[in-house]
Structure formats: structure tokens, C-alpha cells
Amino acid sequence: MNEQAKYKLKGFIFMFLSSSAMGGIGAFGRYINAPGDFISFGRNFIGFIALTIIFAVAARGNFKKLRTTKLSPAMVFSGIFLGLLSGLYVISTQYTTLANASFLIYTGPIYSTVLAAIFLKEKINGKGIACIAAVVLGMLFIVGIITPQGLTLDLDPKWMFGNMIGLLSGVAYGLYLFIGRYRQDCDSNVRSWWNFLFASITILGLMAVDSLLSGGLKYTVKVNGVQQVDAAGQIMTAPWDIFTMDVTSWLVWIAAALITGFIAFHLLAYATKMLKAGELAAISYQETIMASLLGFVMFNEVLTPLQLVGGALIIAGGVSQIFFSTKAASKAGEKIEKEEEIRENLQARLEREEEKEALR
After folding, report:
1. To which protein family does this belong (predicted)?
2. What is the pLDDT of residues 145-155, one digit of tens each?
3. Is 235 helix (H, G, I), strand (E, B) or coil?
């Protein structure tokens, strides 16, 4: 395997680890007595703090890179969209069904693939389209949009506001992946630092809007990680106050922020630099598999046959994309190596000819 293929494979590994870590947020959230947007804020703010500490203690050279790297609109909007994709998703779950919200945010990778094809000329062939189609279909099975009883996507007008917010979260997700393909010259650590900063600021603004819409921030009441419902079947909520959060919630909030925020988003910054939008899309749905596995292991949430089929489709599509992309990168690398070898041989021949001429 040549260097180009190794580089591509490394990007896939980063994306796989990132999406797997993101998939754990649902499991963590069940043990945090706090609004979802505050949890989203922690995923970015703790990431910003952690990366700043790493820069100060173990990687001081990055502060110099921060000062010397020109802050461009692409870097600013990358952070803003990172904050919007997670914050808007959380708000949408409060105003529409969970299946609707999940489906709408996962339309994001499709948008990024289309935008990259139009504006960045990132070509996607039939094999790539087939891989993306497989993982998207698998996602529809896993999040419960496609069931044995039919489609569960609820277009009832009462969910219109929540569906629009969910759609915007998907657009933000797609724009984040797309804009991440710009400023490839920027160091990934520096990019992550700015992403965490602007995402944190963005989510603070969303929390203020959410508080106004909801008459104050609220959190869902849970017992042993299970959401409680009232006699009418509605999810029970309670007013939230940051000063009355219990110790367990704080500890889990920090753990969730480090794993599903700092680690996941930091690795994603590397992956967006190394992979094309279509390649990112094919691996991003691994998040749904991890969420389902954690639900099964931690909460005995049995996977339906269709969900198992969905997981198999996502794995098959993702593995196929990795195979096709690394193979193509390997061929491109071999071509570059041959061209370099030809240039070196030609240079050596010219040098020998010059030496012969000098001896005559």
C-alpha cells in the first residue's frame, strides 16, 4: 500500500472513530438531567477548553500556528454550522417526533455530497452513489422511518415547526461537512480550536432562543435512563437550573463532552481534510449503528429484523466505499511514483550525458 492509499485509509479510520463516538451521545444523555442544547454546548465548550490545555501543556507550537493562520470566512462558518447542527437537532426533538428529527439531520451528508460535486468538482461515480444509497437506506431502517407497518415519517401539520427545525439541522450538518473541505492548508488542530469556539458561541445563542420559545429551559425526567411519561402519554419535563444539577449529571455531562464532543469533533476535523464529501457521507451513518448497539447493550432495546438489515447495509456500504476509495488512491499513487521514477531516470541520464560531454 503506497502513501496515497495509506493517507486515504487513515482518513476513513478517523471518520469511523468520530462517527462511532458521536453515536454515544444518546446513551450519555439519558443520565444527564439537563436540556439537550446545554449538553450540545458542553460537547463544544469542553472541547475548546481541552484543546486549549493541550496546546498550553503538550503542543505549545499550536498557539504560534493560531496567531499565524489567517482566520477566513470558511473557518468561522465551519464552527457556526457545527454548533447549529447539534443545537438545532436537539430543539427539533422537542417539537417533532424523534424519528422525524433523526431522519432530517441525517439528510446532511447527502447535501454535502451534492454541494461538493457542484462547487468543488468532486466527482462521484456509480460505485460511490451505490454506497451512499446503501447507507442511507440502512439509516432509514435503523431510525425507524421504514418499518414492517410502512413509513413512519409523520407529516402532520402539528409537527411542521419541529420538522422545519430538523430540516435546518440537516442543512447545517451538510454545510459543515462541505465547508470543511475548504482551507485544506489549515492545520487540523487549529481548525478544531476555532470550530469549538464558534460552535460554543452559536449554541449559547440557540439556548437563549430555545428558552424564549419554551418559557425557560427544561429537561426530560428520567429514571435509570428511561424517559418518564405522564398519564396522557406525554414525555415529562421539569424546569432546569444549572445551579441545581446533581453531581452524577455533571460527571456524565463532562464525560459525554470529552468523548462525543472533543474526541469526535476533533477527529472529524481531520477526516474532512482527508476525505471527499461522498466518502465522508458513506461512513457518517456509522453513528446510527453505535447508537443502536449502545441502546441494546445498556438498555436492553432489542433491535428489530429491519434494524439489523439496516446495520448490515450501512456496514456493507461503508466497507465498499473504503475499498473503492483506497484502491483508486493506490492506483493514483502508483502513477505518481512511476512518473517520479521516470523523472529521476531522465535526470540521471542527462547528468551522465553532461559528464561525457565534459570529458571530450
Report:
1. Belongs to the EamA transporter family.
2. 998 888 888 88
3. strand
